[in-house]
């Protein structure tokens, strides 16, 4: 394999891995607190992308304003989903919350089809995110620099919030014992709402960056990225923020490099991710950095 070609694939793999990592961190935060796999998480990518798209195209907002509005509104939608769908089921069996999460996912997708339509729309990519930089025969997309930088900054911010802030301490305490923490005067619902807000913001950023890399917006665009981010979270250790980021990077690199080595496997890219999930669940269910958590 040509050296420059190999480095080019590494760049593509890191970019894709960072996108998976952003989405996976949101998955793992919600699971860490509630033990809930929020399958509607991937569809928040779609929501944020559509809000940004219409903000730029229909309302002619400057793209920074459109992106900020899309991210904030998606974060608020995450809170609404928690309050409307999950909060009434706090004391119900977990299978009820899981089924509800799947239902919310279908609801968002089908609302997108009914309200907006199923035809893909071309996402406008700002000029500062377009173009390439040539380094030693390797063409690195400018967007790749931004994706890696934004992912790193958000990962550091989330780790600081979880480990250094009061609400982060409350989140970690809730992940161990919700009832005991509530008896100690912590407003569990407020902490959980903040968790959904922060996780949804990460999904929104990931969705907008995803549309800049693959500039087509449609109602089902978040399904496969969301499922692969779930695989990344399990791979890294679901419930562990750093592990989710590492899992995303490994998954992105594995997808790109396997196809680079075996181009005839390009039709099996999605299958590669789910094979990794099966292997991890069979050999190390807690993932790379996970730990056995109380039920």
What would your notes on this structure say?
The chain has 295 residues and is mainly alpha-helical. The protein has a domain at 26-231. It has helices spanning 3-34, 43-57, 63-86, 94-115, 142-164, 166-176, 178-183, 188-213, 223-236, 241-261, 269-283, and strands at 121-122, 132-135, 138-141, 216-217. The strands form two sheets. It has a two-stranded antiparallel sheet. Strands 2-3 form a two-stranded antiparallel sheet.
List the helices and strands and how they pair.
Layout lengths: L2 H32 L8 H15 L5 H24 L7 H22 L5 E2 L9 E4 L2 E4 H23 L1 H11 L1 H6 L4 H26 L2 E2 L5 H14 L4 H21 L7 H15 L12
Antiparallel strand pairs: 1-4, 2-3
Helix pairs in contact: 1-5, 1-8, 1-9, 1-10, 2-3, 2-4, 2-8, 3-8, 5-6, 5-8, 6-8, 9-10, 9-11, 10-11
Helical content class: over 70%
Task: Let me know the average pLDDT.
Answer: 91
Shape: globular
Helix count? 11
* Structural classification: mainly alpha
For the terminal residues, how far apart are their CA atoms? 48 Å
Radius of gyration: 19 Å
Regions with little confidence, pLDDT below 50 for 5+ residues? none
């Amino acid at each position: 394999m040509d050296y420059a070609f190999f480095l080019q694939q590494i760049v593509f793999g890191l970019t894709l891995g960072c996108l998976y990592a952003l989405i996976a961190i949101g998955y793992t935060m919600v699971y860490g607190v509630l033990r809930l796999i929020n399958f509607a998480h991937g569809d928040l990518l779609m929501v944020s992308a559509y809000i940004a798209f219409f903000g730029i195209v229909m309302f002619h907002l400057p793209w920074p304003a459109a992106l900020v509005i899309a991210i904030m509104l998606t974060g608020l939608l995450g809170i609404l989903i928690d309050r409307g769908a999950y909060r009434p089921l706090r004391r119900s069996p977990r299978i009820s919350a899981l089924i509800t999460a799947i239902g919310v996912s279908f609801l968002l997708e089908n609302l997108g089809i009914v309200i907006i339509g199923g035809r893909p729309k071309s996402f406008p990519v700002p000029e500062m995110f377009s173009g390439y930089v040539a380094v030693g025969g390797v063409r690195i997309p400018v967007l790749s620099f931004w994706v890696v930088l934004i992912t790193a900054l958000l990962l550091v911010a989330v780790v600081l919030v979880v480990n250094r802030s009061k609400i982060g301490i409350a989140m970690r305490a809730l992940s161990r014992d919700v009832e005991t923490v509530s008896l100690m005067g912590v407003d569990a619902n407020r902490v959980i709402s903040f968790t959904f807000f922060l996780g949804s913001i990460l999904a929104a950023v990931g969705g907008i960056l995803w549309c800049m890399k693959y500039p087509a917006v449609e109602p089902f665009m978040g399904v496969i990225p969301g499922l692969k981010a779930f695989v990344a979270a399990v791979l890294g250790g679901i419930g562990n923020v750093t592990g989710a980021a590492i899992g995303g990077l490994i998954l992105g690199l594995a997808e790109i490099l396997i196809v680079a080595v075996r181009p005839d496997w390009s039709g099996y890219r999605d299958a590669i991710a789910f094979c990794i999930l099966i292997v991890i669940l069979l050999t190390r269910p807690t993932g790379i950095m996970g730990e056995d958590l109380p039920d």
